[in-house]
């Protein structure tokens, strides 16, 4: 059962690659998906990043009670946790819910209402026209959202620290540059690309192969989110083990 | 012309279609009729290539569809128009965008030419002032017409209609039937219709294929049906007393006998 599904998933990915019937229409579809996946998720990404950044400053300060630990360490912890874990992983788990359910329900609805069959009969490669732009748009916009989340989280951490009197602006800025390794940004981007692919491809798979009616679309949508989240967490561990040890 | 030669199709070991052979002629409305579960929709989906057949051949102008390369299949598919039971209109697009979609995908027309062609097709199916409306904003009958307009926009050689009258009132059903028949004759299209509607059978059935439990039970025209002695066909077509009476009246009419006064 699992092997059959995995095989079908691989065949779906293989099926996306054929010469487009019309480049302009594929480009239009790609831009539409960029707007749907990227711009429409902007609000939620901004909100969660601001709060995660703010909360991590307050909680880190609460745990670093020793007077021998310099205040700048708070900024270092906030920076590293935002870049390494919160921005890529938490943002992508939230996006798996927002974007993943949208992709699965959109494709599921198209399948159930025979819109995919209509495209097939017209001679259009539906995997290429419907799924490839979604995956490509996710690979472009989700890492951008992750980078945005890093900046916003760190900025919100600074503001929260200053407003609550935990740390001065000078200390925070000093902590931000102290011991900074650019490699962690590279690592975070590798995670972002991997998670973006997981979210878009798994959700597309569950939506594209829906059978039945409205109830099954809901189930497929839930399954898409749950399975994407599990694979994000597995990939998170695997990448950390591979690239950080 | 489409020819079916010994078509078999099954799912999970159960035969749904068994040894179906038939000829669907150009310029004629070819009807596939049968009870629910008799294999009509499966046969139509096999004909348009959505399902692969287990055995047999489906010939489009003497070329077997399932032996074609992907490129050849794509060419044939661009010559196919299909009206779905649920219309399958793209709900994120307006009526105009729905009809224009195949043109955008497959033609090199300029925007002005495309609009002209879309308006011509919408006009041909008697739809006006609906260009900017979304499918959710129009009635079932209008959706069917948009579906027809979309399926004829690329001048198809083959038109497939799956239950074109489902969910429509009798009057609108007749309008849709008439429209499909007119288009078939006007553009010499090979039209294949899946239907349950007895009015369609009697009014526009040039060739009728009756499926019973997955095999071909009867084949003929709407005139032949009146005199058919096939019990299964008669009990399916003339199921009610009203329809049996209508059959008698039609027989008398065809034989030139005087009809009883109304």
List the helices and strands and how they pair.
The complex is a heterodimer of chains A (245) and B (262).
Chain A: H1 2-15, H2 23-38, H3 42-63, H4 72-112, H5 115-121, H6 126-163, H7 169-177, H8 183-208, H9 214-243
Helix pairs in contact in A: 2-6, 3-4, 3-6, 4-6, 4-7, 4-8, 4-9, 6-8, 8-9
Chain B: E1 2-11, E2 14-24, E3 29-34, H1 40-47, E4 55-60, E5 63-64, H2 70-77, E6 80-83, H3 95-106, H4 111-124, H5 140-152, E7 158-162, H6 170-186, E8 190-195, H7 198-204, E9 207-212, E10 215-220, H8 222-227, H9 231-237, H10 241-254
Parallel strand pairs in B: 3-8, 3-9, 6-7, 7-8
Antiparallel strand pairs in B: 1-2, 1-4, 4-5, 9-10
Helix pairs in contact in B: 3-4, 3-5, 4-5, 5-6, 6-7
Summarize this, please?
Chain A is mainly α.
Please give the largest β-sheet of chain B: 6 strands, mixed
What portion of residues of chain A belong to β-strands? Answer: under 5%
List the helices and strands of chain B in order.
Answer: EEEHEEHEHHHEHEHEEHHH
Number of strands of chain B: 10
The helix content of chain B is 40-55%
Largest interface: A-B, 14 and 24 residues
In one word, what is the shape of chain A? elongated
Number of domains of chain A: 1
Distance between the termini of chain B: 43 Å
- How many H/I helical runs of chain B? 10
Low-pLDDT runs of 5+ residues of chain B are none
Helix content of chain A: over 70%
* Beta-strand percent range of chain B: 15-25%
In the predicted model, the low-confidence regions of chain A spanning at least 5 consecutive residues are none
For the biggest sheet of chain A, the summary is: none
Molecular structure report:
The complex is a heterodimer of chains A (245) and B (262). Chain A is mostly helical and 245 residues long. Chain A has one domain (22-243). Chain A has helices at 2-15, 23-38, 42-63, 72-112, 115-121, 126-163, 169-177, 183-208, 214-243. In chain A, helix 3 (42-63) packs antiparallel against helix 4, helix 4 packs parallel to helix 8 (183-208) and helix 4 (72-112) packs antiparallel against helix 9. Chain B is an alpha/beta fold. Helix content of chain B is 40%, strand content 24%. Chain B contains 10 helices and 10 strands. In chain B, the strands form 2 sheets. Chain B has a 6-stranded mixed beta sheet with strand order 6-7-8-3-9-10, sandwiched between helices. Chain B has a 4-stranded antiparallel beta sheet with strand order 2-1-4-5, covered by helices on one side. Chain B starts with a strand and ends in an 8-residue tail after the last helix. Chain A binds chain B through residues 21-22, 24-25, 113-115, 117-118, 120-124, and chain B through 45, 48-50, 73-78, 80, 82, 84-86, 88-91, 102, 104-106, 160.
